[in-house]
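User: Assemble these into one structure.

Assistant: Restating your components, then the assembled model:
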Amino acid sequence: MRALANFYREREPAILGGGFILSLILAWQSVPSLVSLPQGISLFFTTPVEVIKAFHQLVVQNQIQSHFYVSAVEFIVGLALAILVGLPLGLVMGRSKILDAMLDPFVTAFNATPRLIFLPLLILWFGIGIWSKITIVFVGAVFPLLINTYEGVKNVDRVLVNVVRSFGANEWQTMKTVVLPNSVPYIVVGLRLAIGRALLGVVVGEFFAASRGLGYMIANAATNYKVDVVFVGVTIFMGLSLILTYFVKKLESRLSRWRPETAKNF
Amino acid sequence: MVPCIQASDVTLTFRPKDREAVTAINGLTLEVARGEFVSIVGPSGCGKSTFLNVLLGLLKPDKGEIQLNGKRISGPGEERAMVFQEFGLLPWRTVLANVELGLELKGVAADTRRKRARGLIELVGLTAFENHYPHELSGGMKQRVGLARALVTEPEVLLMDEPFAALDAQTRDLMQTELLQIWDRAKKTVIFVTHSIEEAAYLSDRVVIMSARPGKVKEVLRIGLPRPREYEMRLSPGFNEIKSRIWSTLKEELVTRIGGDGAQR
Amino acid sequence: MALRDRYYEHQRPILGTVSVIGFFLLWEWLLTSVVTVDPFFLTQPSKVAAAAKELFLGGAIWQDLAVSSKAFLWGFSAAVIVGIPTGVFMGWRRRAEYTLDPFFTALYASPLVALAPLLIIIFGVGLTGKVVLVFLLAVFPFIFNAFAGVKSTDRLLVNVVRSFGGKEKDIYWKVILPSILPYMVAGARIAIGRGIVGIIVGEFYAASEGIGFAISRFGDTYRLPEMFAAILVLMILAVVFTEGLRKLENVLAPWKIGQEAR
């Protein structure tokens, strides 16, 4: 009995947290056997087991794979473009007062606005092929990357810049030895936010302008009242964001070995 | 003989964007001989650190100039190195990589700089910690790294900007003794900025007392204590007399400064 | 010299204004005098301004804004009412944190917008579907910011107030509330952005009115000046809200919390 109590005490967060999620799923599963749902609701109702069955079905039919492939390409290309543009621009804006002053109004305005409102425009420009989604992913992801890189550059300790300059470092060496390393933790935070925005772009972009992709699959299933398929899609997106977030956090702690323990959580 | 450092009529005014211009130093003239240990004391904001930054070559004076070995200082150079008050260690670099910094920026090959950095890490007694990150070190250890880093490029002149201000009293005493030993061996010219009268008196050949802002040299005091300095000297009546002489000169400036601040409001 | 000093004093706003005005002038000039672009593809600022005037004076946009605002306010208020107590509770009770944190973290990390089609077929294209969507997206920033606010309350300060004979009430008013407040404003700023996403997606997906519907309808009918005008209105609103809240944050927490909770 004591051993059991100790076991619980040591793992209390995991047991409570995992237990809660597990019991939610169980409760969800047991709803139909506890109450009989009226016609109007049962149309929109599904259970975890049915979702798993639907998932299995879609895998067998090779549907998930092809939808996933399209979404993945949009996500990766859009995010890669955002990194290629956001990081250098953030660095330059952080180091040049003039460019900063000139670009800041645009960055602030676009960052405050949910970029999804540009979707109709992007559909008009790029059609419903892959490029409208790549661009919506791009405009979603580029600003968090840019702004966090900028913050990292701006928050460089003046003393450290003076240290390397006192050793005769030029602008490029200052960038390499102080500004960039200092920005890395900020950039990783930016990446974490950017991944969220990019996924949002994929989902919503595919809702409205696609004939393939997981977002399309969800929207299409909803129209046809295939609630289990909707949940398959939603679960995949949830899983993807959790996995990606996990890896970015890993990256974060790996890249910040030099930071004191207390600062790592941020 | 040409003095090692010759500052003549150095004047520098800061012009911040959103505030009024501030003249930090005004007509500062000072000569320092080769191998001399000179401390600078003065009221807060009197431009001591500004003067060090001009010496380092990070700031350019509006008027006047500083010569080093008869040549005008126009930017950072390897004859000078600074030990910073807040240590200024790059937090993402290990002790070894921090000490290597100056050589790395000069483009010295990796194995050479590693060897030289290790030698200096040994000098400051941190060999066991060369792969530690700064946040894993105590304040005293961090400043030892700062000192090793400054020495690695073999500068002639060591500039020290309140290097021990962030340390506790015991560590500070220890570091002062170590600094004197290293200075004695390496024969560097040292310009040492401090707030502590005792520290200035104990370490230096001469103590420069600066006036309140805008700073210039108010008085220079030669410290007659024999070398090598011993900790016990601090307890002697002679030492107390030196301290009180510095203090009485400094006090006038502190009073001026407080009065001046009051008038501004 | 004096003029130059003046310029340096206000360099940022001057350069910012110049570049924004320059951008619109260049855009106008390029499209009227340099290249001819299909008007179904791109339009110029003068036409957008004319369209904006028409939208506002004709009154069409007000109705759309009112519809969207109503859904937004309902969802947002629900998020505040549910989110803040939940977050405070999680910060206060260790077991509540252990139990709820993994579940909420998973939901917060996920693109919950993916549920939009389902919510809309369940609740219909009217108000309710959008309200639920806004609530789902906006509630988590409040939960996690209230949580972080409580967690960040300095135990030392609690003891200080106690040591001066402060009661529970004093602790709440003098320590906990000031600690949480800046977090709440930061939470609200994030929640506003997410709430607008909810409205937009809901109205893109299925609606007959609202600002999101207006934008997508203008797109479908190739009325570019109107579409740009509507987008511009939304951008201005978003900037006013988020920058206003940022200012408020600085007023409430001049010592600056420095980092956003998640």
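The longest strand of chain B covers residues 22-32.
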